[in-house]
Here is the input.
Amino acid sequence: MASVSNPSVISLWGNNHEELGEVATDIIPPDVAIGISRGRFPKGYAHLDANEDGLIAASDGETTLLAVVDGHLGFEAAGATLQTITNRSLQLLTTRQTDLQAALTACLQDASQAISDAVADHRDQREHSRTAVTVAVLKANTITVASAGDTSAVLLSAGAAQIINSYTDFLGPRAASESIVTSTTSSSPIDQLEYEGFTTAQATYGVDYLNVDWNEQAWMSAESYLDYSAFSRSELIDQLEYEGFTTAQATYGVDKAGL
Here is the structure.
């Protein structure tokens, strides 16, 4: 493994950030940042803890690791997974590209065992604590991802968003290896298109003429929110604006979602 020079690790734990409307952030200069919030509105679904999420970022200046956990039935599974990734973060930064998928899979398998240990003494709903998790390692122009559950790794490039992982079962005690999926992709849209078989000229043309419909993006985001929580029309417009959509885009999205 290559040597790491002055690596930095930062994390945000949901159980430390439970106030509605609070947004906590941290950075690794010059270009790595993470943020967490319980949200602006109470959860519209059953839960045990106010904020069951968490994030970690690590960087040595050349390689960056980002991870997010989204717990269910308590913070136990999310916390155990976050701690496991934190413990492995410096090792993952120095893992060779060819070995990363296996290393990330092993990390999440260890997290599954840590979840087993965390819930072992519970005899209530918390013994069924699970978490969704996505870990991404960015090395040069390559992104390697491992995930379980329904969190998404999204690559934003050339004005477009590309989901680069898939949904599986949530990570819990003694999780099956099939619940952990891995993938490797290029962070350069031209490189990725070439990898998929397009010529350099075709790939360059496609990126140059890419046109994102932000009205449609706002509509898809609105639909996603309504899938898991109840919003009034004004609340959902506010939430979309909070995400960065304009008032017109947010209104379009809410209108098309039928609210």
